[in-house]
Amino acid sequence: MARMRAMVCEAAGRPLAARERERPQPRRGEVLVAVSACGVCRTDLHLVDGELPQARLPVVPGHEIVGTVAACGAGVTSLAPGVRVGVPWLGWTCGRCDACRRGLENLCAEAQFTGCTRDGGYAEFAVADARYVFPLPERYDDLAAAPLLCAGLIGYRAYAMAGDARTIGLYGFGAAAHLIAQVALHEGRRVLAFTRPGDAAGQAFARALGVHWAGDSTAAAPEPLDAALLFAPVGALVPAALAAVRPGGLVVCAGIHMSDIPAFAYRLLWEERTVRSVANLTRADAQAFLALAGRVPLAVHACAYPLAAANRALDDLRHGRVEGAAVLTMHGDRASNRS
Length: 339
Fold this sequence. Notes:
Layout: E1 3-8, E2 17-22, E3 30-40, H1 42-48, E4 65-72, E5 84-87, E6 90-92, H2 98-101, E7 112-113, E8 125-129, E9 134-135, H3 142-145, H4 151-161, E10 167-171, H5 175-186, E11 190-195, H6 200-208, E12 213-216, E13 225-230, H7 237-244, E14 245-253, E15 274-277, H8 283-295, E16 302-306, H9 310-318, E17 325-329
Parallel strand pairs: 10-11, 10-13, 11-12, 13-14, 14-15, 16-17
Antiparallel strand pairs: 1-2, 3-4, 3-8, 3-17, 4-5, 5-9, 6-7
Helix pairs in contact: 4-5, 4-8
């Protein structure tokens, strides 16, 4: 049987292990993807830290997969070998439950997740359900396309929840925020970026992308916000964001995991302010955002790492040493800013 390289999460709290594995084969309704790049997401940190109780270990992490279809299982007619595709976090849903029937497949109780409950893209090959695989806009090369598949998709779902908010605060300016900031600016909205205290480089990066203000997350917002999107997994930011949004404003928590939210005074929530979360994504989100990314030239800032350096990429992400997004590539280190 053919073999492949993979980085495997074998136990929580341990570094990923470099392993040679048997190359998987697609079953009915699945495709085999030859991986060229895979984004490194903060969710992967939560996985290796043991903060995702649903994880199936051992598992190959990675849910921002870019590659080409290498083989199709029986019954697959929507894709063909050689097609470049992306594979996101949501990997399978039942299609039968109440959530699925109401268009909320992201809340399916039986859902499977790429790189968490099914093997992901920290490997040379990955198998995916063909229904959850998407063609990618041609304007982005493999390295630039990878962050679109989670940072972009989850950022877009959070952004869509903000409705017609004209002034938006982004808390945590990493992979997701640097993409959705560009979408918001393209649509004529005011964007304020809040970074970890003292992160002068992150604030300069945000300003270079055109945001109207950038500063510490501990600082008072210089103007009232219509909505705040929280990408940093820090529960203490929820009351801070509530204090920053105007009456009737919205705070969206966009991460899969967040530290505990501290108690706060009811007056911060009063005047019809709202706090809500984003859970996963839907295929409709993927189709809408990837179509948008095809029309709007997003400058994707990505830092490439070879597959074997996955642990270094995770450590750099943990300590804020990544500007934009970290991406594993099967073709060695190279840089890209293609848009």
